[in-house]
Design brief:
The structure holds two protein chains of two kinds.
Chain A (H helix, E strand, L loop, with lengths): L1 H17 L2 H20 L3 H4 L3 H25 L4 H6 L1 H7 L4 H33 L5 H31 L3 H29 L4 H13 L1 H13 L2 H4 L2 H4 L9 H23 L3
Helix pairs in contact in A: 1-7, 2-4, 2-7, 4-7, 4-8, 4-9, 4-11, 7-8, 8-9, 8-11, 8-14, 11-14
Chain B lengths: L5 E10 L2 E11 L4 E6 L5 H9 L6 E6 L7 H6 E4 L11 H11 L4 H4 L1 H5 L15 H12 L6 E4 L8 H16 L3 E6 L2 H4 L5 E6 L2 E6 L1 H8 L3 E6 L5 H8 L2 E2 L4 E6 L4 H10 L6 E5 L3 H12 L4
Parallel strand pairs in B: 3-7, 3-8, 5-6, 6-7
Antiparallel strand pairs in B: 1-2, 1-4, 8-9, 10-12, 10-13, 11-12
The chains are: A mainly alpha, B alpha/beta.
Chain lengths: 276, 301
């Protein structure tokens, strides 16, 4: 069983390397994070805060946009693309269960994503350390950022598999993936913000809003990371929210785990019913 | 006692109340090469998917070595090459073979020998994206031969191949069958499979209309031989009257005759002597035989 899962995972990693997917994702993450670290750190000096910590705060916001996008782009092809190419027929005619197949895909993609995150963000962290503007605490912040970004990535990978299993055409799955990204990462926040502005002291703001954040893994990720940095005084905005929540900020991690589990179960349910 | 490799009895499958496979029964013996023929949409691919366990039949029974289709033991003994498969373009032929060998629990290193066998040894390290159609199809066959399967299912393996590649492909299939594997391959033309299979099944509109050897099928069809007799414009009518044929253009007359009457018919033509310029004889082609059996199901549909 492990052998087959590893085989599927290994194939994904190989394709990721061969298609330069990993390189591209790494370069994008590195370029954005370096730009944020170098350009964005100019005002931090006056605050006297660790430069690494403030960079991590900016990178958390970057992750919210980039990581789901990269994850969805990795995942949308996983099932519908294999159906399109006819290879799913071949794979499923081999003695591999559909659960093993999905797990193998996920393992491969998680490795690709984690590698890109570690190299991309890691290079920025290393640069800050090398220039003497880092500290032990800042390093821990970096590691936490990479780990939680990977977790956020897994949540969106799972969503990507579900969307990919809903259709037989890879192109349709790609459209669904972009739509999901737009809704969860962009429009969801805008809607919450709009509702908050219309009634700042009402029931929505006090009772519904905190849980609305938990329902979206992207918001839950941001909530946890900014709270963990104690950065509300640095970045304001979303971070300030965490102090007025009726639950501790680490609930954000549970939210991501719950979202992942649910999406994976639904995806597996769909894949089991697919006629390749 | 010979154990059947594959047996189907009264298998029926419907999509949206349209019957795609209709009461199909046949069996395949060890080492047999069987061609499944049918027009596009006759239900060939659906039948394959039922045998592989991807689709459940509404009625009837399918047995792959006494196992349920799709069960682990049935899958381990079966290999499949789909009609149109596009392997990952960025992987090499060797990587594709190693991948499927691992999935089937076989030794990847040993399975690489199959590339040599299908004539891809020298292209093994090239990317599949650069392969020709014939090479991709041979890679697909190599994939299907991993781990000495007992039953090899090939869905239109030679469609779109040039005649030379096709012949090479059938030679490989012959070798595989000689080693004891049963091969069930589908095609949409009898001319493609010719004498390269032991038995021919013809599927028409979901019904199995023929199950026999090719020579028996030709004999059963009793298709007439067509004789075309050419005279001059003035005496074409005279020829038609004396031979009892049909005038088809200015100077030619067409006659149909049973295979047994061939010699007598030719003798009566030569009696006309100088009136005849030329005689053409058309034996029924494989396509005619195929059309004859396919047409049997037509009126009922």
């Amino acid at each position: 069983m492990f052998n087959r899962i590893l085989t599927v995972a290994g194939q994904e990693v190989r394709i990721g390397l061969r298609n330069r997917w990993i390189m591209l994702a790494t370069l994008i993450l590195a370029a954005f994070s370096l730009a944020l670290a170098l350009l964005g750190s100019a005002p931090a000096g006056t605050l006297g805060v660790d430069r690494m910590t403030i960079t991590v705060a900016s990178l958390a916001s970057l992750s919210v946009y980039l990581v789901p996008l990269i994850a969805l782009l990795l995942a949308f092809d996983a099932i519908s693309g294999e159906i399109d190419r006819g290879t799913l027929l071949l794979i499923f005619s081999c003695p591999i269960s559909r659960f093993e197949f999905l797990l193998g895909k996920a393992a491969g993609h998680v490795f690709v994503l984690t590698l890109a995150l570690s190299l991309g963000y890691g290079s920025t962290g290393a640069l800050l350390l090398a220039t003497g503007s880092g500290s032990m605490a800042g390093l821990i912040d970096f590691v936490r950022l990479i780990a939680t970004s990977a977790a956020l990535g897994v949540a969106f990978l799972s969503l990507g598999y579900l969307l990919s299993a809903l259709t037989r055409q890879a192109a349709t799955a790609a459209a669904l993936a972009i739509g999901a990204w737009l809704i969860l990462v962009v429009l969801y926040d805008l809607a919450l913000l709009g509702l908050l502005v219309t009634d700042p002291g009402g029931i929505f703001a006090s009772k519904i809003f905190p849980f609305a954040i938990l329902f979206n893994p992207a918001d839950a990720f941001r909530l946890f990371n900014l709270a963990a940095l104690g950065a509300s005084n640095l970045v304001g905005g979303m971070a300030g929210v965490s102090e007025n929540l009726p639950f501790p900020a680490y609930f954000g991690l549970f939210s991501i785990a719950g979202f992942t589990t649910l999406a994976l179960i639904l995806a597996l349910f769909r894949i089991r019913r697919i006629t390749p | 006692m010979t154990q059947k490799i594959l047996s189907l009895s009264n298998v029926t499958k419907c999509f949206d109340r349209r019957t795609v496979v209709d009461e199909v029964s046949f069996a395949i013996n060890p080492g047999e090469r069987v061609a499944l023929l049918g027009h596009n949409g006759a239900g060939k691919t659906t039948l394959f998917k039922i045998i592989l366990g991807f689709l459940r039949q509404e009625g009837g029974d399918v047995c792959v070595f006494d196992h349920q289709p799709g069960s682990a033991s049935a899958r381990a003994a079966t290999a499949y090459l789909p009609e149109s498969v596009a392997f990952q373009k960025s992987l090499t032929g060797r990587e594709v073979i190693r991948f499927y060998a691992r999935l089937k629990g076989e030794n990847p290193k040993k399975s690489e020998d199959l590339l040599d066998r299908v004539g891809l040894a020298e292209a093994a390290n090239r990317r599949v994206g650069a392969y020709s159609k014939g090479m991709r199809q041979r890679l697909g066959l190599a994939q299907a031969l991993i781990g000495h399967p007992k039953l090899v299912l090939l869905d239109e393996p030679t469609s779109g191949l040039d005649p030379v590649s096709r012949q090479n492909f059938y030679r490989l299939i012959e070798d595989v069958a000689a080693e004891g594997a049963s091969v069930l391959l589908s095609s949409h033309a009898l001319t493609e499979v010719e004498a390269r299979t032991d038995r021919v099944l013809i599927l028409s509109k979901g019904k199995l209309v023929a199950d026999d050897t090719l020579s028996n099928l030709s004999a059963k069809a009793r298709l007439p031989i067509r004789l075309k007799v050419r005279g001059s414009e003035e005496n074409a009518d005279h020829i038609a009257n004396s031979l009892g044929g049909k005038r088809i253009n200015g100077r030619s007359v067409e006659l149909l005759c049973e295979p047994g009457d061939k010699v007598a018919r030719l003798a009566s033509i030569s009696e006309l002597g100088d009136l005849i310029d030329d005689v053409d004889m058309h034996l029924p082609s494989l396509d005619d035989v195929y059309r004859h059996f396919s047409a049997i199901a037509e009126p009922e549909a």
